[in-house]
């Protein structure tokens, strides 16, 4: 055979073999590759569209995320919140100690927790009727705030909202039917508060709500209230009477002392009463937690044989207590030194 013809035929045969022996993909590998491709495609499809994601902007010192005001870095002491804001976020103005006044627009519907906590120079704040909720400790430690009116639109106020607002002398609570609870420590140590009107829509008063309100002189429990927590009026050194409306189905009062309706539980003894001695009425079986808290004028209490449960007389002037045989349970410590 001609040498050139042989080389040509050999070359054609080689190309044919290469073309015919193309590697076939392993079915398992093929399936895995398909799964990977599908996964990548699915992840790409599932990835959120960031083109419409809420952005954070700053205008006149306000940091706003979407429609939520989340912070303030400006120098203006008289704050007028922009109309674009619908919510004042958690801690938005916390510890802004130079702010003296705040005007909140009608666009705002909620004020979140700690929003104005520690604004020690804040003397006035205007809350519009658009606001429906106020978070916990929102105005706590605003020591220059003297008065506040909470509009009827508000249905909830978080615990400790006004605690330690030591200059607060006047508070107006909402009277709408949806506002039913004064939460724990809401007015804790508001030492300038002289009076408070609890509206007829309130059904519950939490623990320590008026604890340490040393200027509070009197309070009336309306017919609507069915629940009162511990130590609500402890340390109210000027409080001479706690009166329950006669129509209240859960509470009653006698000589300014608060009891449950059938007078089997002593709820609270006003710390401002000048009496040195007090005789618990026969029929009382238990004493509410903190009922005699910081009643420093009291030096002697007579406990009847009907009492089966005793709680502490912390902060009173009492030096000793005679416990009758009827008592089966004692909260300890029963006595502590008046501060």
What does this 3D model show about the protein?
By secondary structure, this protein is of the alpha/beta class. Helix content is 11%, strand content 22%. It has a 7-stranded mixed beta sheet with strand order 1-2-3-5-7-9-11, with no helix packed on it. Strands 18-19-20-22 form a 4-stranded mixed beta sheet, with no helix packed on it. The longest helix has 20 residues. It is elongated. The protein starts with a helix and ends in a 9-residue tail after the last strand. The N terminus is likely disordered.
Can you describe this structure in just a few lines?
The chain is an alpha/beta fold. Helix content is 11%, strand content 22%.
Query: How much is the average pLDDT?
Result: 84
Overall helicity:
10-25%
The coarse overall form would be elongated
Radius of gyration: 35 Å
Q: Termini distance?
A: 124 Å
Given as residue ranges, the uncertain stretches (5+ residues, pLDDT < 50) are: 1-53
């Amino acid at each position: 055979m001609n040498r050139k013809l042989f080389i040509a035929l050999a070359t054609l045969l080689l190309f044919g073999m290469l073309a015919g022996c193309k590697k076939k993909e392993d079915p398992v590998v093929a399936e895995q590759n398909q799964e990977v491709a599908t996964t990548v495609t699915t992840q790409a499809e599932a990835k959120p569209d960031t083109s419409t994601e809420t952005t954070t902007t700053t205008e006149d010192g306000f940091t706003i995320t979407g429609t939520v005001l989340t912070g303030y870095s400006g120098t203006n002491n008289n704050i007028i919140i922009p109309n674009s804001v619908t919510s004042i976020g958690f801690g938005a103005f916390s510890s802004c100690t130079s702010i003296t006044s705040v005007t909140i627009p009608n666009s705002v519907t909620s004020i979140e927790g700690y929003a104005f906590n520690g604004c020690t120079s804040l003397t006035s704040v205007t809350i519009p009727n658009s606001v429906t909720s106020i978070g916990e400790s929102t105005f706590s430690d605003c020591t220059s705030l003297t008065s506040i009116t909470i509009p009827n639109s508000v249905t909830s106020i978080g615990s400790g909202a006004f605690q330690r607002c030591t200059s607060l002398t006047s508070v107006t609570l909402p009277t709408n039917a949806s506002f039913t609870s004064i939460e724990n420590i809401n007015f804790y140590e508001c030492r300038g508060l002289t009076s408070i009107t609890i509206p007829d829509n309130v059904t519950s008063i939490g623990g320590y709500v008026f604890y340490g309100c040393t200027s509070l002189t009197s309070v009336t429990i309306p017919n609507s209230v069915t629940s009162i927590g511990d130590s609500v009026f402890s340390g109210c050194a000027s409080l001479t009477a706690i009166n329950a409306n006669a129509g209240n189905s859960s509470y009653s009062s006698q000589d300014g002392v608060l009891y449950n309706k059938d007078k089997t539980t002593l709820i609270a003894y006003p710390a401002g009463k000048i009496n040195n001695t007090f005789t618990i009425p026969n029929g009382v079986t238990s004493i509410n937690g903190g009922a005699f808290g910081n009643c420093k004028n009291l030096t002697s209490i007579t406990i009847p044989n009907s009492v089966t449960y005793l709680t502490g007389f912390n902060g009173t002037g009492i030096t000793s207590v005679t416990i009758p045989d009827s008592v089966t349970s004692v909260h300890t410590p029963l006595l502590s030194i008046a501060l």
